[in-house]
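Protocol step 4 of 5: obtain the predicted structure for the target chain.
Materials: sequence only (see below). No template structures provided, no constraints applied. The aim of this step is simply to have a reference model before the mutagenesis design in step 5. Sequence pasted as it appears in the construct record:
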Amino acid sequence: MRLLEIGVFAVRGVTANKLRSTLTTLGILIGVASVILLIAVGNGASTAVQQSIAGLGTNILTISPQRGGGGNPAAASSAKPLTVADATALADKTEAPDVKSASPVSSTAATASVGTTSYSVSQFVGTDPAYFETTNSTVASGNLFTADDVAQGRKVVVLGATVASQLFPAADPVGNAVLVNNIPFTVIGVLAAKGSSGLQDGDDLAVSPLSTVQNALTGYGGLSQIVVQATSADALPAAQAQATTILNGRHRIGIGQTADYRMLSQEQLLTARTATTDTFTVLLASVAAISLLVGGIGITNIMLVTVTERIREIGIRKAVGAPKSTILGQFLVEATMLSLFGGALGVAAGVIGSQFTIAGIKPVVVPSSVLLAFAVSALIGLFFGSYPAGRAASLRPIEALRHE
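Step 4 output (structure tokens):
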């Protein structure tokens, strides 16, 4: 019966001032919702990155120039750029039997325009036809360019879905002309949409023959990348070893010397990007946790005000025999009720908010974060309500009754 009475008194205390109780629970609601939603955003970003990398396949190596010679001035001065000849050597079946293809890539940002419509393409890629198979890029309409287009240096372009929709919002791009840095290109195809990883739009690109891009846009300097496809996922380590041997020989890199290129497998790239998104998630969760802390401080403040307002009530109850534990329990239950109610509403708000795309990221709710946030909200009620409750329970009846 005592527990039931404590609960009844606690409910009356909470509902006596509805506006104050609502504002108190609002702080907890925001904190819990923020924790759930921001962790969901971080998890969604991580999932998008994993899907983006996995979409390229598990048998891909990405080779890029090592900027600055790895921090060694001597290595920087002797560093050689990646060239088309390097890509050709990597595709030699005699020297690299586990390499299926090696596509040279030269990319730059460019401005594309059609009539009065203009769009800044983040990646204007020059490469060979094997690039499409290597990167799992399929055509949605039109055609891909051929080896003959590369040999002839034809000004043809295959647009990513984002670029196509920006330049031709209501028309079929295939067969139309587009100016790239004021140079006319003919659109021969549109790639199937890949979607966004949250950090980068995978469809914000245009692909043309390497010879055309080098002649018209980037010049004949070093390549941006060489994308290597192994014959299978199991053959990836062997392909990586063979590619390393070939490039070390071509770039005259001796034993113990720093390579002037970087070689990343999909697994290594996934590990690096996952670590980045994990750090991002922890940072977001830490920021959200501050909201919970602020909500807890709000509970302390409100409960102290409540105790002050109800000193005479406390004195009367203690004078008629209410033990210290009953007074303590009542105010602890009040604080916990406020935090649990706010936590429940926060869980609902966080789950509902995660149904919407945020900054290009589709949040993925982590069940453990929901349970953790709700449990923490309950602990906040107990922890931050303990001081006001203890203060109320320690009041002497004679002093409480004298209080005006």
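Step 4 remarks: Strands lie at 60-65, 99-114, 117-127, 139-142, 156-159, 177-180, 183-191, 205-209, 225-230, 261-265. The chain has a mean pLDDT of 81.
Proceed to step 5.
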